[in-house]
Design goal:
The chain is mainly beta. It contains 1 helix and 13 strands, in the order ββαβββββββββββ.
Length: about 260
């Protein structure tokens, strides 16, 4: 991902901190060699190095997103929605379903090529048409107060056979308003690229197909985000052990 021809629009490289033996890993492709099917850059792609990848000094990043709040999103170990869309586009799977009869997916989803009546959905969305909160733990939280309210999120130990567990919350404000969220506390996993052991993801960005902002360290506490719409999917997850966090939320009414 960091070798995309357009990566300089999204990343700043700290070349002085890159191990000289690994400069080639940061080579940028040409547009002619790099077909991205007009899909946007995704900081949460499984193909993206983490921010400290190949560093001479591991305390300093080798690359920083231009939107710095994405720094811990880099280095994911799970497929992002755009990864899935890219592969399905490349291999012609999107043409397997008849557009006239296939599921009418919402929130950017696309028909599943092996079951055209259901959709493959972006993170934070579920149901046959991507218009519901994913099944399982979590809930819909109505956001109506202009004073901060707290929400505790807890993801328990993995059961036998599980490789991950995720709880999805929807913070929903009245139409036309926005949601402000603030990270108050969380389990501390240290500086881990991609927050792959456990973390919390906020999808406040306009493009809900893209991966959201992920956080998993004490230094992330106090981060405040403002949504682009009246809904914020929030995913708390773990891949190894218990994860818990506390957030504050409030409505921001239109002026």
């Amino acid at each position: 991902m960091q070798s995309r021809h357009d990566r300089d629009n999204y990343l700043l490289l700290n070349k002085d901190n890159i191990n000289p033996d690994n400069f080639g890993d940061f080579s940028k492709e040409t547009p002619e060699r790099n077909e991205n099917y007009n899909l946007p850059y995704d900081y949460g792609s499984i193909m993206h190095y983490h921010a400290w990848g190949f560093a001479k000094d591991i305390s300093k990043p080798t690359m920083v997103p231009k939107d710095e709040k994405y720094i811990r999103t880099l280095g994911s170990r799970v497929l992002s929605f755009y990864d899935k869309l890219l592969m399905n586009t490349h291999y012609g799977c999107l043409d397997k379903c008849d557009k006239n009869t296939a599921a009418k997916c919402t929130n950017g989803g696309f028909p599943h090529p092996k079951n055209c009546s259901e959709c493959i959905c972006p993170g934070g969305y579920g149901g046959a048409l991507c218009d519901q909160r994913p099944k399982g733990c979590g809930k819909v939280v109505r956001v109506t107060s202009t004073s901060p309210r707290k929400l505790n999120l807890f993801v328990g130990e993995l059961r036998e056979g599980e490789v991950s567990r995720e709880c999805t919350y929807w913070l929903e404000a009245p139409a036309g308003s926005k949601v402000e969220v603030k990270l108050i506390s969380l389990s501390n996993w240290g500086i881990i690229g991609g927050c792959h052991i456990g973390g919390i993801e906020f999808k406040t960005q306009a493009d809900q197909k893209a991966t959201g902002y992920r956080f998993c360290t004490k230094s992330d506490i106090g981060t405040t985000l403002l949504s682009s719409s009246n809904r914020v999917p929030v995913m708390a997850y773990n891949h190894e052990s218990v994860f818990e966090a506390t957030i504050e939320y409030k409505v921001v009414k239109p002026r």
